[in-house]
Amino acid sequence: MFIHPTTAARQARTDARGCPLSGATEPALQAYEAALTAFQTWRRGAEPLLDAALHEAPHFVMAHVLRAYLRVCSRDPRRVRAVAPLVAGLRRLPANAWEHGHIAALHAVLADDIESTKSCLGELLRVQPRDVLALQVAHAFDYLSGDLPRLQDRVAAVLPAWSPRLPGYGTVLAMHAFGLEESGDYPHATQAALAALHINPLDARAHHVMAHVHEMSARPAAGLQWMQERAAGWALGTTVATHCHWHLALYHLTLGRPDRALAAHDQHIRGNGSCEVSDLIDASALLWRVELAGADAGPRWAGLSAAWAAHIDDAFCSFNDIHAMLAFVGARDWPHAQRLEDRLLRSAAQTTRHGQTTRLLGLNACRALMAYGRGEHDSVVRLLSRLPASAHRLGGSHAQRDVLQLTLQRSLERTGDLRRRRTASRDQRLARPWPSVGIGAPVAP
């Protein structure tokens, strides 16, 4: 049972928003707040700040919790599972009822029960809508699980409890802006993102929203100008720099500059040979789009395929599986493509979360990509067009999921079926939610 924050405040130290804390000292609390700010605004440096907080106060429960959250908000199962000892150690700390809500959320993550994670965090927010850490983590899992209604509604529900005087208000506005953008409300998304940037011009999260707004409203030149003029806010010392460069590369592609898109890939996305799953996703998505645009990604595919090979047996995330398959097909690495298909067939027979998304979406989407690589465009159209309307449950953003809609469009063009081509041309982009014609729509025999 949760205790009310005003009661907890008399029993223990509280954070800057009134959430009760156990085991904190004033110096540790200052380091924790700085780490939380870095996490909120997607800037690097949270880990050493937590080191300092825990050196000062080893039993500071929420510092341990924040450290765990830094690692579990990820598409990399190795990163998530490595948190298990840390979470187990939380049982030995004298946590209050509030903190036990966060600990329960972490246990649900490790049990691969994302819905229970979101439920735990939602209960915390129901009682204390100023728990910005619960809000941020719930928002992250709404995004990762493709929960579009909650992505917008969860943040909107707590906004009345916030004001500009509260630390973290800019981050709440930036999260609200992203939910608005994903719902297709670009004017209000822009308004909220600009308000967040007025509070903190270095809020990389808000700059990322603006990258999406320009992409989804088909204003690539304006997007390039915006992002390039404000690079100090997102490109230096942030956790989202690579992904923002991906957005710039998409602008170049839209403007007919595949050479510049590939230069962005070589310099910023794969320049350091990163094997972070998020970076591999960006690289796969970009190179596939380059080739859909008629350019040649060349030998870049081989190294990317090799990097993805280590994740074939992850059985963790259909969004990852699709991007791994993009790399295998792009490299014409059919042995690895076949291994991934075999792995998905085994997953589809299981009752796990991955098994459910594989049956619903992942297996047919990956088979469609294999068919595309073999030039079997009728099969591509059949497989992708019959994905269900809930295909947004793959997770990610509309801009990311566009890769399937764009692939469908290219296959429609290559089938020579003029009637279907004219139909699909009415909505070449991924709609909000997915279009009634295209992904999730029936195909005439």
Q: Could you list some keywords that capture this structure?
A:
disordered N terminus; disordered C terminus; globular; mainly alpha; 2 domains; Serine Threonine Protein Phosphatase 5, Tetratricopeptide repeat; 445 residues
The radius of gyration over CA amounts to 22 Å
**Shape designation:** globular
The number of helices is 25
Biggest β-sheet description: none
Structural class based on helices, strands and sheet pairing: mainly alpha
Topology:
Blueprint: H1 5-11, H2 26-40, H3 46-56, H4 61-72, H5 77-81, H6 84-89, H7 97-110, H8 114-127, H9 132-144, H10 148-158, H11 169-182, H12 186-199, H13 204-216, H14 220-229, H15 231-234, H16 241-254, H17 258-269, H18 277-292, H19 300-309, H20 318-330, H21 334-348, H22 353-373, H23 377-385, H24 398-415, H25 418-424
